[in-house]
Amino acid sequence: MARTQGWDVLTHGRSAVDHTRQPSIVCSLEPDTDWTPVLDGIDCVVHCAARVHQMDESPEEAQYAYQDANVLGTLNLARQAAQAGVKRFIFVSSIKVNGEWTKAGQPFLPTLDTQPEDPYGISKYQAEVGLWQLVDETGLEVVVIRPPLVYGPGVKANFLSMMNWVYRALPLPFGAIPAKRSLVYLDNLADLIITCCTHPVAAGNTFLVSDDHDISISQLLCLLAAVMNVPSRLIPIPPRLLLWGLSLLGKRAVGQRLCYPLQLDIRATKEKLGWIPPVSLEAGLRQTVRAYQQQKEQQ
């Protein structure tokens, strides 16, 4: 997206991307990674990389790994960026910094007290704190973006599981969940990131982002089924009963994500930046489903 606007883009990651589209460098996000060779001449760094949960690790291992990559690795990159003369550092954090769910009628705001609960959210919060300290020390311009669940072509994890359930027309006990959640389509997140790279008032701010159209899990599953042109087989189980059953199975955290609201108020983002999400929720879901179905056809 940035390249279409005439920008020179250099990507970094643990694995290579399509080199015919943009230059890429393979590297790891470590506390001692030397970024000096690739920061020369760079105006803005967009830091999206993060260490996420691994199923086969203990809580102690996870906490150490999060600290190593998400906190120390991030601050190492930002510090070297400042030393290299980079003007602006965009940090893609997480709404988990605010918490795991919202109260009815009280969506998250960027100014609310932070209440991260899991090791991932805590590590993102600690990285944010460290970045603001670095601003005072170096004068580096920092912008923090906190997205909710990001979806789009190639999405994985829980969103992919939901699409698999719908694709198979499985009966699902999620037909009576009214709690709404904010989502963000990948292109909307990318558009906000690009805006923050150059917008004169972006520096020094924390922005929340979403599609600006919150939706319940029940509504989301019905919409996915409609786009896939498959029957929606939702069973209306009361949320309290569903949460109780999942808790008995040791899946209380999953139940909370399904049954509790998590809404973001992005009015400050829109007002400060003059920004609106360019892609609607429905259009984003259609693009996501189209890519999913194409992949299914190729299997």
What is the compact description of this entry?
With 299 residues, the chain is α/β, with parallel strands linked by helices.
Main traits of this protein?
single chain, 299 residues, alpha/beta, Rossmann fold, UDP-galactose 4-epimerase, domain 1, 2 domains, 4-stranded parallel sheet, 10 helices, 10 strands, globular
Distance between the termini: 28 Å
Number of beta-strand segments: 10
The percent of residues in helical segments reads 40-55%
Low-confidence stretches: none
Mean pLDDT: 89
Q: How many independent structural domains?
A: 2
| Structural class determined from secondary elements | alpha/beta
Number of helices: 10
Overall shape: it is globular
What profile does the largest beta sheet have? 4 strands, parallel
Q: What is the CATH domain class of the largest domain? A: Alpha Beta
* Fourth CATH level, the homologous superfamily of the largest domain: NAD(P)-binding Rossmann-like Domain
**What percent of residues are in strands?**
5-15%
Order of helices and strands: EEHEHEHEEHEEHEEHHHHH
Which strand order do you get reading across the main beta sheet? 3-4-5-9
